[in-house]
Amino acid sequence: MLERKKDKYESRGIKYLERKIEQKEASDPLELILDFLISKKFLEKVVDYENRSRITWRLGDLGIRMRKNLIDCWENSTAKKMGNIKFIPGISEKSGTEYFIEMFDKDEMNAPFGVSRIIEEPILGFTTPKFLFNDKYDRKLILEYATTPSTSKDMLVSWLDFSIDLFGKLNLKREDLDIEFQSLEDDPDSEHYFFERFKIRNIYHFGVEEFAWVVNKIDFEFENYEKKFPDDKRSRCFVHDELRNTDYFPHVIQIIIDVNKLLLAVLLNNYHQEQVRTSVITTLKLSPQIAPVKCAVFPLSIVDRKTKVAGERILTLFNKHFNTVIEEKGTLEMRIADFNEIGVPFYVAIDPALVDDNVYWLYDNKFGTRSEVHEDDIISYITAKMNE
């Protein structure tokens, strides 16, 4: 048995990982997970940017799909669900203040309102004694929300709750997060002026790393822009604070989420391995929002022509809406076990007895349910879960 010091940063799956014994020697849990993620193309090994001999990792093919899905989820969770949030497509290069000024100028917006977007920075790997991650670009999810000064403290807590709910939707559990509240007095040397902020860390197998921040600040760029503003534009960028009965530049609640670190948290925290009788079973629970493969189709007969034709048809149909694969070989249990390893959230089994009615078995991994569902309703159900 692998012996480790127990502490509050121990991830939930460690007790299962420690049971794995290969050739009578215990293996390092992090190495087991990384080898698995590489084999499934969520990660890949690379030479680091300084050509050092240390092993480094970056996102593989499935990891890159997850990153795209995460960005789609960010747009859906912000702009598509909130009428006062505008999403900026593509990679954003302007500052949030510039977007605010444009919106104040053109749309005559009244606070509160906000902007969500994606920014991209040059390669910024992060290193721990046990882990080195590298990628060509470092992307961050950004939301900036202009509000009145008197409501900014309440808004800070509300947007923290929003962030925690978002992480929960992506299968990051609250017990795997370490959240620290700070005021400016706690960090007087900070490069960014702020009133209060929450720093959110994930408890990885290789250590505790910050991956998100929720900050209440007076937007310093507004103050710098003040000298450049014509009087008419300057006044349009003021917000009216009814509680204080004053007009002034807004306070800004800012959410920053590191995309790569968030994806690593989801992958490492949701890897699960346990001994079931004589077999070691591995699963990776991924949410419908960011799973790289949404659905797997399993025809239950390889000789029934109607079943085969139905499988090919719904594969084509489903792929118009979400990424779907088909597997015809093996028992149903074996096929489910194989696709559990890459976190497929939904399975559709084609039963020859139901195929004439275009009705199939739909398995929902999150709830462990199986239902008879018409093919059109399957599309609606999976699409709705992806957009939750």
What is the compact description of this entry?
This protein has 388 residues and is an alpha+beta fold.
Give a description of the structure.
The protein has 388 residues and is an alpha+beta fold. The protein folds into 3 domains: 14-49 and 268-280, no CATH class; 57-266, 2-Layer Sandwich (BirA Bifunctional Protein, domain 2); 293-386, Anticodon-binding domain (Rossmann fold, 3-Layer(aba) Sandwich). Helices cover 31% and strands 33% of the residues. It is built from 11 helices and 22 strands. A 7-stranded mixed beta sheet has the order 5-6-9-15-12-11-10, with helices on both faces. It has a 5-stranded mixed beta sheet with strand order 19-18-20-21-22, with helices on both faces. The radius of gyration is 24 Å and the shape is globular. The two termini are 41 Å apart. The model is unreliable at 1-26 (pLDDT under 50).
Indicate the topology.
Elements: H1 14-17, E1 21-22, E2 25-26, H2 29-39, E3 43-47, E4 55-59, H3 61-77, E5 85-91, H4 96-107, E6 113-122, E7 126-128, E8 131-133, E9 137-147, H5 152-169, E10 177-183, E11 196-204, E12 207-218, H6 220-225, H7 231-236, E13 239-241, E14 246-248, E15 251-258, H8 259-269, E16 271-276, E17 279-284, E18 295-299, H9 305-319, E19 324-326, H10 332-340, E20 346-350, E21 359-364, E22 369-374, H11 375-386
Parallel strand pairs: 5-6, 18-19, 18-20
Antiparallel strand pairs: 1-2, 3-4, 6-9, 7-8, 9-15, 10-11, 11-12, 12-15, 13-14, 16-17, 20-21, 21-22
Descriptors for this entry?
3 domains; 388 residues; BirA Bifunctional Protein, domain 2; five-stranded mixed beta sheet; seven-stranded mixed beta sheet; Rossmann fold; alpha+beta
